[in-house]
What does this fold into?
Amino acid sequence: MIATVVGTVTLGSVGAATTAGEPTTTEPSPAMTDGAASADSAAPANGASSGAEPALVVSDATVEPDSTGSLRVSLTDVPDGLAGFKIALAVDDGDVATVANASYPDHFGLTTDPAVGADGETITVEAADLDDAVTAGDANVTLATIDVAGADAGQTDLRVTSMQVDDDDGGAVDPSLEAGTLTVGDDGSGTEDSDPNGSESDDNGSESDGDDSESDDDGSPSDDETDDDGSDDGMPGFAAGSALATLAVLVATVLAKLR
It folds into this structure.
């Protein structure tokens, strides 16, 4: 095991002896300065442990179906440094997502190729800190980044199923475990249903327009009938007036002849 061998080889290699009463300072380790840890975290003086209980944390991620993403595996605290590790992880639901590969921070001097299970649901990562890049008191140390592929919409957890983590003194590190949640796609939340309803509203609106058109059609005959009635009422009066005028002319002609 890489973790065991390196832990034995590097025993006592972290930190140099100091003269009593001399102040000492500790520079941030490479693990703290290459993006593997938070920039505002600092190692305690003399390489002493921060006293916090370590946790092995898998981050959360969101991907779309048929796309890829990554989840970070990290130790929140390494009170006695880090010699090496071997960690196995698995997804709870392979129908939602599968693991594809993994990568390591550059500061680990010895790594093994990630071992992905045949079903794509498990992966094992292993590395050793040969150059003491991770020192006692470092925090938020990235161990590996797991690549995943979304399969179908839903949620599944990526969790640690077994581990061996050794510190620089050759002792075993027993961190608490926190699984990461991988979300693939979204829940839809009824957006597909709302569009058809909107379409139906538009159709109803169109029908209303059609009713208005029918009303206009109903009104048109009424207007036509009114015009026809008006014309019919006017014609008899016009004819009567013409007849009276003609009669007056005839009477005037007869009277003229009698004179």
The chain has a mean pLDDT of 72. The radius of gyration is 45 Å. The chain is about 30% helix and 30% strand.
